[in-house]
Every structure is written in structure tokens, then in C-alpha cells.
Hints:
This protein is mainly alpha-helical and 311 residues long. Helix content is 68%, strand content 3%. The protein has 12 helices and 4 strands.
Amino acid sequence: MKVGNQPFGTAPNGTNGILPEKRSFQKSALGQLLFSLRRNRVGLFGTVIVFFVLFIAVFGPLVAPHDPLQHNLRGRFKSPGYTDAKGTFLLGTDQLGRDILSRVVAGTRISVVVGVLSVVIAGVTGVSYGLLSGFAGGVVDNLMMRIADAFLAIPFIVLVVAVSGVIGASLVTLIFILGLTSWVTYARVTRAEVLAVREMDYVMAARALGQSDIKIMFKHILPNVTGSIIVLATMMVATTMLAEAALSFLGLGVQPPTVTWGLMLSDGRQYIGSAWWMSTFPGIAITITVLGVVFVGDWLRDLLDPRLRGQ
């Protein structure tokens, strides 16, 4: 049926009522991403938290109201909202008179750096290892997986103490240790995905056309397993942040005068009865940041898993 010279239900521009720019936006990856995020309120909330934490990590020195390392013995153990000639201390001060808010802001950068860099190191190592193991199969696969199992058998705390004793506890050492201990998870997940993908028809066709193993691995297999890797990496960022805080709390991670949330918790534990704010606010910062990252990871899982897209 036609109305005038146009089919019924068709806009004059021939786009079925959808403007070309709007239709292209809907079909674009960015449009789908924003549409999915708008539907998932938990993911949206987590994304807001993550972007806020990243903003604080990047612009922390401009945001912090005071020097996080500046001592003020006359202003020790002041409760939140304390004001003196040096300004207002919204979250109070610690046992040396240092501003808690400024120290929480300074600790944000350390947590983000440790979480991201450790995941990058572990991800690159583990994904490469699992990709090679799963693609090779047979004896090579079995041998490589037994090596990975041997790494899993090493107690985490023992490895931390051994490496810290030899190299010395520092930020670089902590990132190295966390990357060294978590690459196996990436390797096993990647291997499992590769074992399933390498039997697909398009991989068989690429092999029949004479493409090299390297090209098949990185052009045909790796892009089809990145969804699981992205979700795993997001979740591991939260795990790594918690591990950094725990190690710093025990004195095995980043050392003073570098400010971390774990060290702030360690400093405040003995004053929890008289100066609760010393450990409460860094604990809240850890909790909110980890929850935000977990919410983003949960949203990415729903977005990238084809079995959950229609739910």
C-alpha cells in the first residue's frame, strides 16, 4: 500500500521513520554500549564510581585540601569537621595531625596504579600462555598446565615474604608480586576458551587456506575469547586492590611515607576506640571502589555473554 509516492509506513527520506544519524548511532558499538549501560542501573552506578575514582587518582594533588604528609602535632586526633588557622579538616586528622581526607585522596592513586598495572602484567602473561597452551594441545598443553598448577601450589603469603625479603618491599615489588601470582587465572580461562574456539568452522577454514598458526591465533582465535578476558580482568582489578590493601596493612606492601589505604587502616586500628575516623574513612573508600569495579564487571559480563544478552 502506498501513500502518495511512498510505501505505507515509510518516512519521506526512506528510512522507515528513523533518521540516518540516529540509526547509525543505534547500530554503532558506542550506541549499543550506552544503551546497555542505561538499562543496567547497577552497571551505571558502578561506572560512575569508577570514573569518579579515576578522576581522583589523576587529579588528586589538585583536589586534596592539604598536604597528606604534613605533620601538625597540635592538631592530632581531631574529629571530622575540625577547623583551625590552617583550614578545615572535613574527615579529621590522624595521630600526627595529618589530614585524613587528603590522605584518602592520595591513596586513591596508589590503589589504581597497583590494580591496573598488576592486572596488565598478569593479563598479558597469562593470556599469551593460555593461548599458546590451548592452541598447541596434546603433550605441550599438558606440560604447560602442570607448570601453571605448580605456581598455584605456592602459598601466596610465603611468596610475598620471600620476594619482599630478597628485593625489598616497595610499590614496584608489590606490583610484580601481584602480577606474578595472578597470571595463572588468566592462563586457565584463556586455555579453556581456546580449546572450544579452535574447533570452530572458521578456524578450520583458515587452516585449510594455509594461514600460519600465529595469524590464526591472533586474528581468528584471540578476538573471539576477549570477552571472557575483559570480564575477568575487571574483576581481578577489584581483587588486586583488596590484596594491595591487605598486604600494606600487614606491612608487606607499600612502605611509608607513601600513602595507601591499607597503611591508613593499619595506623588507625590501635586508635579505633578513640579516633574511629582514622580507619573508617579509608575502609569506606576501599569498599566503595571495589563495589564499583565489581558492578562494572557484572555489567560487562551481561553485555559480552551472548547467553545473557536477551535477559
